[in-house]
């Protein structure tokens, strides 16, 4: 890379940037243009306007600083000797310039990584293990905070020795003789004031050692507790040991303005059911967060709470059912036939058994992911009406229209609204659906109704698929507060028992909340002859090209022949419930390791190069 003058072209030789050619002045100019904020003239500005003006000025100053640091890196195509000087979040400013940068230029992150590897090699040559054994008698940070928060400002317990260990999330050098660190663990934060005057190291050794400690490192600190003069709970170390080294640059939280602080205080005590505050996230890019969940959990504290909430949801559902005397059992993951939900099955082959195996997997969108969790329960001598009464009374806030808009309130106060699928569809859409839904006349009528409302239905145009599309268009959109869509037709419910008083319908309901299905339940069909007939009807749809139609499950029918009592069956998507309780709009936000498209997929490559 040539950088002899400010007008010399900068060539970044890096995969994904083959055709990139620009000048340093051009980069800085576009950074400024993309991020600058024009302030309108105001007469007698209000208090809020003044706050906004101060905030915008602070942003401009920060962006100018970042642009200068970025320009320096581009000119040298290298990191400074103190690689902490460059914040990786600066590099994401590329994205706000134009679409030619789709990711961070890797020569910077590569050099940081190489620098760290060289530092570890130097430690090894000096006879120091970069990854020492696990320390003993380490106090968890939450326990440390609880035990010593009573101390007064300036008070120090120099006769007490405490050992803590966890991750360095912030490092603030005051001088070569004084370094400040913030350790984070399980929602707790402790400041470490490393002072050369009380260290076991000489001043030169102290400065050299602490110069090599980086953000993200796991450290053990042995020292005494106290409160700084500014009133912050701290630990004053006599020794500090790096237990594990973070080899990559961590993104930084932007400096908070007074306006930011006020807005964050309203949301810092996040609890399930309350709106989230993703603007406070250090790492915001969804793709990066899902692919590097370890980094996401490390820097975004709210994400940790989300997955803690998901775990508590699963624990609560398990306790709730156990208290009702349910027995937990495990069911086959990949049976010999594609049974279960309406979804295109995944097929594999078992070489030892010489047999094909199947699994129903979901598509990938905002509310579906192949890696999903469900819970089913079955209650003998009950029916679907009993299941509809198993609910609690509470309210939650949910950003149904995106975080940029106000959260809506979802009211779970029972009884939930009940919507008859066929009757209410006819009322709301102005339809008169033929009674015999198995007839060609009904199929033609529903196809014309879909065309009338401009509803797209992928082939094959079976009656069940057409009806499902119409219901989604007309009924599901009305179900913001919890509502049961009930009494589905038999052609849509091969496993549900026929309705006791409505011919052609079944005793089935689906629970919809915020226009999305959460539960599916029905009175189980326990007649083996009728069940085989339903499977045969499904076979017709499969032969017409419907991969989601069910196959004949002979093992299931045989089990029914041994007499199944009247039974109510219920199934719920754990992920979608977690989405509701954590104010998440994307199912990937509540699955630790969601299924993702390959990063080197051709479509993605073409997008990057464009």
UniProtKB/TrEMBL annotation:
GO-annotated molecular function: ATP binding; lysine-tRNA ligase activity; tRNA binding
Recorded catalytic activity of this chain's protein: tRNA(Lys) + L-lysine + ATP = L-lysyl-tRNA(Lys) + AMP + diphosphate
Superkingdom of this protein's organism: Eukaryota
One Gene Ontology biological process: lysyl-tRNA aminoacylation
Keyword vocabulary terms for this entry: Aminoacyl-tRNA synthetase, ATP-binding, Ligase, Nucleotide-binding, Protein biosynthesis
The protein's Enzyme Commission number: 6.1.1.6
Protein name (Swiss-Prot/TrEMBL): lysine--tRNA ligase
Native source organism of the sequence: Daucus carota subsp. sativus (Carrot)
């Amino acid at each position: 890379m040539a950088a002899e003058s400010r007008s010399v072209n900068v060539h970044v030789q890096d995969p994904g940037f083959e055709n990139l050619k620009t000048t340093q002045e051009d980069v800085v100019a576009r950074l400024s243009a993309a991020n600058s904020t024009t302030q309108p003239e105001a007469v007698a500005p209000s208090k809020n306007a003044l706050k906004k003006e101060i905030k915008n000025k602070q942003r401009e100053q920060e962006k100018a600083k970042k642009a200068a640091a970025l320009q320096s890196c581009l000119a040298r195509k290298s990191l400074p000797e103190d690689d902490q000087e460059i914040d990786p979040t600066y590099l994401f400013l590329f994205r706000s310039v134009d679409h030619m940068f789709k990711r961070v230029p890797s020569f910077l992150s590569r050099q940081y990584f190489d620098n760290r590897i060289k530092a570890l090699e130097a430690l090894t040559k000096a006879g120091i293990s970069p990854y020492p054994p696990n320390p003993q008698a380490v106090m968890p940070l939450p326990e440390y905070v609880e035990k010593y928060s009573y101390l007064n400002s300036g008070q120090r317990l120099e006769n007490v020795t405490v050992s803590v260990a966890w991750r360095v999330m912030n490092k603030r050098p005051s001088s070569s003789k004084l370094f400040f660190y913030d350790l984070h663990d399980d929602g707790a934060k402790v400041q470490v004031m490393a002072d050369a005057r009380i260290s076991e190291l000489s001043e030169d050794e102290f400065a050299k050692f602490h110069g090599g400690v980086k953000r993200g490192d796991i450290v053990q600190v042995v020292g005494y507790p106290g409160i700084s003069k500014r009133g912050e709970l701290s630990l004053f170390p006599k020794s500090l040991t790096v237990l594990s080294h973070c080899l990559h640059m961590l993104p930084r939280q932007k400096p908070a303005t007074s306006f930011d602080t006020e807005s964050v205080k309203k949301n810092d005590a996040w609890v399930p059911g309350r709106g989230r505050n993703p603007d406070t996230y250090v790492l915001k890019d969804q793709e990066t967060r899902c692919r590097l969940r370890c980094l996401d959990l490390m820097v975004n504290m709210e994400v940790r709470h989300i997955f803690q909430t998901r775990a508590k949801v699963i624990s609560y559902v398990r306790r709730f059912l156990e208290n009702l005397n349910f027995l937990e059992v495990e069911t086959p993951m990949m049976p010999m036939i594609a049974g279960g939900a309406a979804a295109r099955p995944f097929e594999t082959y078992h070489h030892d058994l010489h047999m094909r195996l199947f699994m129903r997997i979901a598509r990938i969108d905002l509310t579906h992911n192949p890696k999903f969790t469900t819970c089913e329960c079955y209650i003998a001598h009950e029916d679907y009406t009993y299941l509809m009464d198993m609910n609690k009374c509470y309210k939650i806030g949910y950003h149904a229209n995106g975080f940029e808009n106000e959260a809506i309130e979802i009211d779970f106060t029972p009884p939930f609204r009940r919507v008859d699928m066929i009757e209410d569809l006819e009322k709301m859409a102005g339809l008169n659906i033929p009674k015999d839904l198995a007839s060609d006349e009904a199929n033609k009528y529903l196809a014309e109704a879909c065309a009338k409302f401009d509803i797209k239905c992928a082939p094959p145009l079976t009656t069940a698929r057409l009806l499902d599309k119409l219901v989604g268009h007309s009924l599901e959109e009305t179900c913001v507060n919890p509502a049961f869509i009930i009494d589905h037709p038999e052609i849509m419910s091969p496993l549900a028992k026929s309705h006791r008083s409505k011919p052609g319908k079944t005793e089935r309901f689906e629970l919809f909340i915020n226009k999305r299905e959460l539960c599916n339940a029905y009175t189980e069909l326990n007649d083996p002859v009728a069940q085989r007939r339903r499977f045969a009807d499904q076979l017709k749809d499969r032969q017409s090209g419907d991969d989601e139609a069910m196959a004949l499950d002979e093992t299931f029918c045989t089990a029914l022949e041994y007499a199944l009592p009247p039974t109510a069956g219920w199934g719920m998507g754990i992920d979608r419930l977690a989405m509701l309780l954590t104010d998440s709009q994307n199912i990937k936000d509540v699955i630790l390791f969601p299924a993702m498209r390959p990063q080197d997929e051709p479509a993605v490559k073409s997008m990057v190069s464009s």
